[in-house]
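re: that chain from earlier
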Amino acid sequence: MKSTVIIFPGSNCDRDVDVALKKFGFKNQMVWHNDCSIPKSDLIVLPGGFSYGDYLRCGSIAGKSKIINSVIDFANSGGLVLGICNGFQILTETNLLPGILQHNKYLNFICKNVFVKINNKENKFFKNIKKNILEFHIAHNEGNYFCSENELKSIEDNNQIAVTYCNHEGSENEEYNPNGSVKNIAGIFNIKKNILGMMPHPERMIDSYLSGEDGSLFFENLLENF
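^ sequence. v structure.
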C-alpha cells in the first residue's frame, strides 16, 4: 500500500510518521507543501508540528498551501486522510472536518502520555483493532476541540467521534480531559469516515523503547484494513 506524508515548514513529526508507516509495510513518499500534485496513494498523512510557526491560527496558513487542493480532491474522492495534531488542526481549517482546535483550557503546553477510547470501529482506521483503549502521546498547546451545539449534535448523530480521552479503564470525565475538549473529544471523522483527525500521536508509540507500542496496533491494523 502506498502512503504520502505532506511536509510543511515547521512540521516536526513528518519523519516519525515516515518511520512508522515504513515499519509496518507502507510504501511511503514525502511531498513538499509547495508541490501541486500528490503521487498515487492509498493514504495521505498530515503530520504534527508547528506549520508556518503556528502564526495566525494553528494550521490556517498550511490550509492555504498549494498542495491542499490536491489533498481535498483526494479526500472528496474517498481516499483515506489522517491528520495528527497539527494535521488535525489543518483539517479543520480546510473544512474537511468540523469544529476548531483552540488553546488548551489552562493555556499551557501539554506533553505526556494519555489514554483514549475508540468510539467507532466501523471504518478502516479502527476496524478489527484488538484493543478498545489505547495509550498514545500528546504534545500540543491548542488541542482543545470545540464546535457549536448544532455541529456537536450532527457529529454525535453521525457517529463521527473517533476517540475520546479517558483513563486506563475507559472512564471519561473532566479529570482525564487534558485540554478541555468538548465531550473529551480527542479525534473525529468526517461523515464518510475516510478522514480522521486526532490530537494524540500514534507514531510516537511504535516501540517499547518509546514508552509504548499501542501505535503499532494502530498502524498494523490500518494496513490490514486495506
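Residues 214-224 form the longest helix (11 residues).
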